[in-house]
């Protein structure tokens, strides 16, 4: 059981405050900055290795960026680009792609496959996150991708 | 696995309310003049009833007494017409999704997996009540709908 503030038996209550999410975001941003001191100092302590949740966020952000790049090249995927950008921002992850070159435009079926894969990745990450607030954020992102997938035009219906 | 059943009890209380209210909404919807809405309400009712039963089992398996339903719940305003019923169903589904998002944060392991699945199912079900895809379903402070 996580030590987590909870609503008082009110299903309509707001479970985790914005501050929690922002704190999560700030944590994700501050950790990389801690290693950015340009002055060489032999006495500086070695930065601690990334936590399991930080590694999880990094891997998840990479999957989101890949999906964002695929969505950007398919007309049906335009709405998803903004969603993926917002998800990267919430995770405190940079949005720039690792590979700036744009390969050939993928087919709509590729968009569905990529988004379906991302939904699975996000679901798995939500399951594994140690921090409850991070788990909630990742699960919400997975649900968002599921909603957008369900709202995509049905390829069979348009034939 | 959780050492307390309190988060599950909170979710169960929400499901009791959802089952009650979907029964009300279904009872006010004409199967003849609004068949699609009726079917969506019926599916939502059955889904929430299944979730209620699963939560009761999870809590009972942990050796706890599942909370029971309230005798009655406040019914939403404006459910005399089809559009009001649809709006009420959307609001109800969103409140359940919010509860499940919270449950994700308050549980782990199998219980969290269950909550993640419930969150996803509810978020997709919203679309049947003319909900639009959201950026952060279930997280009210990041919501992109009014």
From TrEMBL, chain A:
Residues 92-119 are annotated as: Disordered. It comes from the Bacteria. Residues 93-109 have a biased composition (Low complexity). This is Uncharacterized protein. The lineage of its organism: Bacteria, Bacillati, Actinomycetota, Actinomycetes, Propionibacteriales.
TrEMBL record, chain B:
Transmembrane segments: none annotated. InterPro entries: DUF4439, Ferritin-like, Ferritin-like_SF. SUPFAM superfamilies: Ferritin-like (SSF47240). Gene3D superfamilies: 1.20.1260.10. It comes from the Bacteria. Residues 8-141 form the DUF4439 domain. This is DUF4439 domain-containing protein. It comes from Nocardioides terrae. The lineage of its organism: Bacteria, Bacillati, Actinomycetota, Actinomycetes, Propionibacteriales.
